[in-house]
Amino acid sequence: MHCYLKKFLSSMILSVVLFYASMASGKESVMLPKNIQSVLKHRNLNPSSLSVLIVDLENEDIILSWNSKVPRTPASVMKLFTTAIALDALGPTYKWKTAFYVKGDLNDGVLSGDLLIKGYGDPYLTTENVWKMLNRLKVEGVKKITGNLLIDDSYFLNPSYDPGEFDNEPLRSYNVGPNALMFNFRSVRFFVESSIEDEYIKIKQDPLLPNFRFSNNLKSVVSKCVGYQKGIQISSSQKKEKFVFSGTFPDSCQDYSLFRSVLSHNEYSYGLFQSIWKSIGGEFDGVWAKAIGDELLEPFFVHESDSLSYLISKINKNSNNAMSRNLLLTLAAEKISAPGDIIKGQKFIYSWLEEKNLSTDGFYIENGSGLSRIATVSADQIIHLLKYAYASDFMPEFLSSLAISGLDGTMSDRNENDELTGKLHIKTGSIDHVSSVAGYIHSKSGKRYGLAIIHNERDIHKGFGEELQDSIMQWLYNYED
């Protein structure tokens, strides 16, 4: 059994003891506020499935504590640990590098040999950033490559990974695994366009990948614009180099788009390289192969990512799983040793928490993203992390990485046009039967509070969890001593 999973299981017993000890000490609230009780009763929700902890960030007074020491599944709220610890350990100005090596002679723009790209885990090599890298390659004098594309992703250990293990949805972009040379999250955006002239639907893709293709058997039907994926069905070949679209698309629907992951990481990188390189006038007809670059050789050039402080906003505001998985492995490689892997990443997270005297009892971080059925944390542990971050030098960067209520990220459609708009900086979390939020609130009284809410109950992810959270946050916004 995994060593950290063993530690988690053994510490669960201690967590139960601590929970009842806290109840006996009087630190737990005797009852919840009336408006919160009302939602629980109206929706027939079980109060014992809910954990809440709210503290005053100035004097650390506990405002509300309910089952706060019970370890629960947090979903994407776990990203708070990955990002806050990364800011503290790597620093807000940390940047990832991607190195380019020419393996041959370069004369008059012609590389007579191979091009090797070595990735160091940049989690945000989007299509636009890959274009910037390849345009730089051209500016540096390479116009034609006669050899092959060599891919070095050895900075991370890449064990076999099943993207369908979590929920049997292997094509979903949120299930993409980590990779040291991850281009564009290995995803394609498909645009589905209705046409009144033709019973068949038009489908376009971005980016174009020469080594990926799809068949369109999708048909238009006269019906209301409803249904899962608007009636679109997608199947794929085993290697995901071909998709088949089938099913029906209501003619009343507006144009629709969806993201899906295609190919393998290396195949995707090869396809996107081909597409962009040729689009900017470069020549290349080779194949791709895995390789290990010689670290002693001077790179032809090195691309640097945006800063960590900028990129964690992409992780937290939009809850990007692939980026947070890469970030955990970056911590593993940078703070323990390369190649980075999950076990080293977990080891560093635990050592950091223990160094800061933050409890790890009942805590288990599986992959850094929170997309997990077995990751657990208590509201109390989340609050201790939030308090540490709030008092730290990187507080502004961490706070600004969180979604703002009613304005952006995963909170853009919550608390819109009400008095809570702009008052909360929040990380949300939701998977089947899990709904959670954690972050900071600037109350009507001018005080700032840290809050953590985790709810594990059947179907709580279907809207009732958010309704309950909103009632708690509204109560807290109006709270007065």
What are its keywords?
alpha/beta; Beta-lactamase; D-tyrosyl-trna(Tyr) Deacylase, Chain: A; 3 domains; 11 helices; 20 strands
Task: Describe the model.
This protein has 481 residues and is α/β, with parallel strands linked by helices. It folds into 3 domains: 3-93 and 308-477, 3-Layer(aba) Sandwich (Beta-lactamase); 97-160 and 269-300, D-Ala-D-Ala carboxypeptidase C, peptidase S13 (D-tyrosyl-trna(Tyr) Deacylase, Chain: A, 3-Layer(bba) Sandwich), CATH 3.50.80.20; 173-261, no CATH class. The chain is 30% helix and 24% strand. The chain is built from 11 helices and 20 strands. It has helices at residues 3-25, 34-42, 79-90, 127-139, 265-279, 308-318, 321-335, 342-355, 379-391, 395-400, 464-477; strands at 50-56, 62-66, 97-107, 110-119, 144-145, 149-152, 187-193, 202-206, 213-216, 219-221, 232-236, 242-250, 256-261, 283-284, 288-290, 301-304, 403-404, 424-431, 434-442, 448-456. The strands form 4 sheets. Strands 3, 4, 5, 6, 14, 15 and 16 form a 7-stranded mixed sheet that branches. Strand 4, helix 4 and strand 5 form a beta-alpha-beta unit. Helix 2 runs antiparallel to helix 11, helix 3 (79-90) packs antiparallel against helix 6 (308-318) and helix 7 (321-335) crosses helix 8. The longest helix is centred in the N-terminal third of the chain and has 23 residues, at 3-25.
